[in-house]
Amino acid sequence: MIVYYEFSYDQFEPKKDNTYRIVIKTKSNGGFEGYSGAVPSPLGNAIRDEIPGVEQAISIFSFPGNGQIDVSVVDPKGRKDILFKKQENVYFVDRNYTHLLDYQWLAGDPTSALEQPFRVVLTRSMATMYFPHQKSAEIIGRKLRYDDMDVTVTGIIQDLDKPTDFQGKAFLSIQTANTASLKEELMMDNWNDWMAYSKLFVTLAANANPEQVGKEINRLYSKHRKNEGYFSSIEFFLVPLADMHFDFRTQSVDSRIVNKSTLYGLIAIATFLLLLGCINYINLTTAQASKRAKEVGIRKTIGSSQKQLILQFLGETFFLTFLSILLSIILIPMLLQLFSAFIPEGLHSSFLFQPRLGLYLLVLSLLLTTAAGLYPAFVLSRYKPTQVIKNETSITFGQSRQAIVRKTLTVFQFIIAQFFIISTLMISKQLYFVLHADMGFQKEAIFTFDIPRDSVQTLRAQLVQRIQAIPGIALVSNGFASPAMSGGAFADLSYHNGKEEIKPQAQIRWGDQNYFKLYEIPLITGRIATTSDSVTELVANERFCEELGFKHAREAIGQFITYNGKMIPIVGVMKNFHAQNLHAEISPIVFVNQPGSTFHIKLLPQPAGTNLWQKTIAQIETIFRDNFPEEDFAYHFVDDSIAKFYAEEQRTALLLRWATGLTMFISFLGLLGLVLYTTNSRIREVGIRKVLGASVSQIIHLLSKDFVRLIILAFLIASPIAWWAVHVWLDNFAYKTSISWWIFALSGIGMLILAATLLSVQTFKAARANPVDSLRDE
């Protein structure tokens, strides 16, 4: 369901095969290569006017900043307006956007609703929120106020009910973005810069070549670009709409990108589990074949052909398979809750009732029936009536070919089981390593919260003093983000060493003088930058100094760096720390002496059994609300934020633990089937050996040694495969744990112990059986 759902994203658009997103590939002067799904704002109009082969150029703009906007419903009678704070998914578009997605219009004229400035089209869900209990036609003409901008509702469209990355709920006419208040913020005439709130899609003519259109766009941009800026090269190219959901280069805050390798991994796990189920069915069915031998003989005696018997046994397998699928469908709602961490937000149990999925389940039933039932059906249907009717227990089930097949299948089962065990242990070891790694700064008992960016510095200073006076607070700092953050904040920095200009790709942090003390970031040399309203000093990390060519950190002290056109001296060098997760290497970082809108709070240790931290945070919230009554107080602990860096790995580890448990359970069922088969086929041999004086321990050793050899063989095959897979996975981390030998030893010994326990129970039962029962017919 997950795989089908993710691959169905944006497959409903009428022109999906000819629609592309424009993406930028950049190279900095320092050699850093990056991608962006944002484009210069005027590019869309220029493409529409100047490049042949482009049917539509669809520009989409969100509000500057975080894309959120306060919306008020204007009361037509002049009474108090109704305020909806921090509304999301509000975009500036033209009418081509609604044509691209083929919206169903409930009210308004699709051809003119977005032609004029200060017009907005709402989805039905958002219209219902703003204007409850009103019909779509009644909402046309009503007024909404976006911040200080009044707009008129000119259309209502039905919400998209299919998987899509286009999450818009309200659409302002793009002419509105050209008004004086927004034109500069959205950089509508700026060719030399772009921000995440500007996206561009193009729909090409049927005979247009995407690569050629990409070249034309690059020529067009070169014509309008006025200076080189920070990047040494900028290249535009087209990403097909079908690939957008899987392209991390186009990721933004309002989109959810999925890794295709994760989906292929899910398919692989599902396939392995199904194969294990088929193998078990084969082993268990053939192991119990003696119980049906007489039935086969009687049926053949009264006229049944081998073909009829094969169809009968396949029919039984299909019936069991079909019942299992019905049971799985019944369990789906519970499983969606159990695995909620893996389930996309829009995926519900109703997704099961799509016609294609029903056809898939039927085909799956037939494939599983063939894979699991065909071999047992041939084995059972080949018994000779004269043998089985005379005495079904005298049939020889130990033909070498069948034994080889069963042993091969069992080895295959345990290869998969060992692979999952080793992989799970190694991933868990790496997760422990990254979550407990020394980041180069203190991360425990520290949380952050933000205040409005336009707050004056005097108010920030007052807040620092008031919060610092609260019992339970160790230290307060005011600045920008914590040392480690998802994504990155980069600065345009350069240094001229007398021969050449060096432009390292450096991240930036800023804050007051308490920042270093709060996070316990050590200085190697120099001093902390003095707090100032403007940037006058900076502290660099060791890696930044290396990028500039200094062999010793002290050589960087006093050197001037160009920052935003100003010459800023380096006054200190701090020890390297991880500014992102451990997937990435430590990057060059600079710290500038400027306060910001983020508060960093270090708490005193909390005595066991107390709620000191909750009380302290509640007091801070009270101070926050005294100053910002209309804002929401949201705080985040730094160590929790760092743990979220590895959310995907944690989900992978959880999924692998489930898969490992299921694999081991199924594999031991398969082992049980083979043990049953072997003990049944050798029951007379055991009887004769006991009559001749063999002990119970000797019989157990005789019956178990072959199985132990199979498990050891599986371990020897699985170990190098698992080592290679884990090695490839660990290559995604710049800093990683070692592949320890004890992981493999623990996996192999643990599997042997579990298998030996299972074997001993069944073989002990066979060894203790009375030989008279097995030899009475001889």
UniProtKB/TrEMBL annotation:
Its main location: membrane. It is a multi-pass membrane protein. The chain crosses the membrane at residues 263-284, 317-339, 359-380, 409-427, 655-677, 707-727, 739-761. Pfam families: FtsX, MacB_PCD. InterPro entries: ABC3_permease_C (IPR003838), MacB_PCD (IPR025857), Macrolide_Exporter_MacB (IPR050250). Keywords: Cell membrane, Membrane, Transmembrane, Transmembrane helix. Residues 268-384, 661-771 form the ABC3 transporter permease C-terminal domain. Residues 10-219, 415-593 form the MacB-like periplasmic core domain. It is found in: Cell membrane. This is ABC transporter permease.
